[in-house]
Amino acid sequence: MSQQRSERPAGSDSRPARSAAGLSADGSPGHGLPERGAPASELPDLPEATVARLPEYLRALHVLADGGGDVVSSEELAQAAGVNSAKLRKDLSYLRSNGTRGVGYDVGQLIDKIEHVLGLNQHRAVALVGVGNLGQALAGYGGFGSRGFHIAALFDADPTRVGDRIAGLSVRHIDELAEVVATEHIAIAVIATPAHAAQAVADALVDCGVTSILNFAPCVLSVPENVDVRKVDLAIELQILSFHEHRKSTLTALPEAIS
């Protein structure tokens, strides 16, 4: 068996990502984008934290573009994305996009660059495994399409769910996974199963050739080195918020305790 590694929580890893683009600094025609299919060795690395922020910049840029904005300063974009401007400028420098002093960044060109880096030049088919309450909510979410993704297939191991129609798709049995993944050219999958079933589902996905997994199950997955896993655990996020609430209440109570 190939070398195993555990998944990483979203935004928690600082290792360089394996996808980025060699982009021109002058915004020349084509925006300095390498030809599609360029070897990965020709693309510079990006820190994982930078990759995690690029979608935030992209979302803010689309809002600006929809409002008729053509140019944006680093301060304006940073505020819209919820980061500090120095961090934003450093992130965009990896894309060799330094803007124009006194003017800012061309919104359209920056959208093109970030979409290229994130591989959003084409819509990506996604498989969703597990159609319980969470899975159904994810299947019906309308925001994936505008961001370069579409749910191409739904799977579940429960025979009573097979054949159900959810968000315009018919639920398939998990045994059909390999056939559908090959037919739909699926490389990305979402796991929304109970924790006890998630590892077996991950193994099946990997065996079918899926190389990227978004895991909503509250467990850690073991996957081969060439498979990327992002973990979303809503309970953990609430626990982190609970810590901050507890800390705030403790700090508020400190003066009384001292007196």
TrEMBL record:
<protein>
    <recommendedName>
        <fullName>Redox-sensing transcriptional repressor Rex</fullName>
    </recommendedName>
</protein>
<comment type="similarity">
    <text>Belongs to the transcriptional regulatory Rex family.</text>
</comment>
<feature type="compositionally biased region" description="Basic and acidic residues">
    <location>
        <begin position="1"/>
        <end position="10"/>
    </location>
</feature>
<comment type="function">
    <text>Modulates transcription in response to changes in cellular NADH/NAD(+) redox state.</text>
</comment>
<dbReference type="InterPro" id="IPR036291">
    <property type="entry name" value="NAD(P)-bd_dom_sf"/>
</dbReference>
<feature type="domain" description="CoA-binding">
    <location>
        <begin position="119"/>
        <end position="220"/>
    </location>
</feature>
<dbReference type="GO" id="GO:0003677">
    <property type="term" value="F:DNA binding"/>
</dbReference>
<feature type="DNA-binding region" description="H-T-H motif">
    <location>
        <begin position="56"/>
        <end position="95"/>
    </location>
</feature>
<comment type="subunit">
    <text>Homodimer.</text>
</comment>
<dbReference type="GO" id="GO:0003700">
    <property type="term" value="F:DNA-binding transcription factor activity"/>
</dbReference>
<keyword id="KW-0805">Transcription regulation</keyword>
<keyword id="KW-0520">NAD</keyword>
<dbReference type="InterPro" id="IPR009718">
    <property type="entry name" value="Rex_DNA-bd_C_dom"/>
</dbReference>
<dbReference type="InterPro" id="IPR036390">
    <property type="entry name" value="WH_DNA-bd_sf"/>
</dbReference>
<keyword id="KW-0804">Transcription</keyword>
<dbReference type="InterPro" id="IPR003781">
    <property type="entry name" value="CoA-bd"/>
</dbReference>
<feature type="binding site">
    <location>
        <begin position="130"/>
        <end position="135"/>
    </location>
    <ligand>
        <name>NAD(+)</name>
    </ligand>
</feature>
<dbReference type="GO" id="GO:0045892">
    <property type="term" value="P:negative regulation of DNA-templated transcription"/>
</dbReference>
<keyword id="KW-0678">Repressor</keyword>
<dbReference type="InterPro" id="IPR058236">
    <property type="entry name" value="Rex_actinobacterial-type"/>
</dbReference>
<keyword id="KW-0963">Cytoplasm</keyword>
<dbReference type="GO" id="GO:0051775">
    <property type="term" value="P:response to redox state"/>
</dbReference>
<keyword id="KW-0238">DNA-binding</keyword>
<dbReference type="InterPro" id="IPR036388">
    <property type="entry name" value="WH-like_DNA-bd_sf"/>
</dbReference>
<dbReference type="InterPro" id="IPR022876">
    <property type="entry name" value="Tscrpt_rep_Rex"/>
</dbReference>
<dbReference type="GO" id="GO:0005737">
    <property type="term" value="C:cytoplasm"/>
</dbReference>
<dbReference type="Pfam" id="PF06971">
    <property type="entry name" value="Put_DNA-bind_N"/>
</dbReference>
<dbReference type="Pfam" id="PF02629">
    <property type="entry name" value="CoA_binding"/>
</dbReference>
<feature type="region of interest" description="Disordered">
    <location>
        <begin position="1"/>
        <end position="43"/>
    </location>
</feature>
